[in-house]
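Late entry, evening session. Most of the bench is empty. Finally got around to the prediction I had been postponing all week. Sequence below, unchanged from the version circulated by S.P.
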Amino acid sequence: MDRVLADDLHALHSLVSGLRRDIHAVTAAFSTSWSSGQVEGHVTRVKLLKRMGFGRANLDLLRRRVLRSP
């Protein structure tokens, strides 16, 4: 992070500042065994179902498809 701030890459300075501001969360993300992979998979599946019904379905049909799909 110090090397990035020493460079002239101003676009990355805000990224490093944000990482330093929340360094405890960044450290925890790399040191814990927790993973959000399963949740992300469900979010991706729901987005796919939503896109498949775009322009043809209303919220009730989307709700039924999300709850019934495996």
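Two things to note before I forget:
The chain has five helices and no strands.
The radius of gyration is 20 Å.
Will write this up properly tomorrow.
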